[in-house]
Design brief:
The protein has 189 residues and is of the alpha+beta class. It has a single domain, classed as Immunoglobulin-like (Sandwich), CATH 2.60.40. 25% of the residues lie in helices and 30% in strands. The chain has a five-stranded mixed sheet with strand order 2-9-8-4-5, with helices on one face. A four-stranded antiparallel sheet has the order 1-3-7-6, with no helix packed on it.
Amino acid sequence: MLAATALLPAPAHAHDTLISSDPADGATLEVQPDAITLTYSADVLEVSPVVRIVDESGETLTEVTPTIDGPTVTAPVEEPLPAGTHTVQWRVVSSDGHPIEGTFTITVEQGADEAAGPSDAGGTAGDAGGAGASDSGGAEETTPAATAEADEETPSEGESSSMPLLLGVVGVAVVGVAIAAFFALRKRT
């Protein structure tokens, strides 16, 4: 019986948490940021990460498959954002294998069409993003890799249609491992 408990999954530990974002939650930016940078309490897994920005009515403005570098997730914001308050929705897989998700808001004062007039708008976006952020440190490293996958999975009206599927797959995998461990132990005894 002791061998059976050794093969069972370890007790649940606290999932990783978002410790900072750039721009920070509630930040007001003159123009849209070049990227959304999220920093977690531990390395996250490169399994179906997504960062989505929706407007006040819930309409998806952009959805990006971000790059992951240890605990840092970077999502380039290449689609023009209109002026207004936007919700940033994120989903990653914690280092313990469990999906985690959350949201925060940012306000963009000038829409992309309004910001095109002034020169050096890109520099202003980086400065504004840095001003509203707290200790993320990676805003300068914007990598537009893996954005093509975002087109494959675009839920309508800001709904996350892939989350139940992801949770189902993870659940089936956990049950499968438990069943395999049970039969493996049963054969040994």
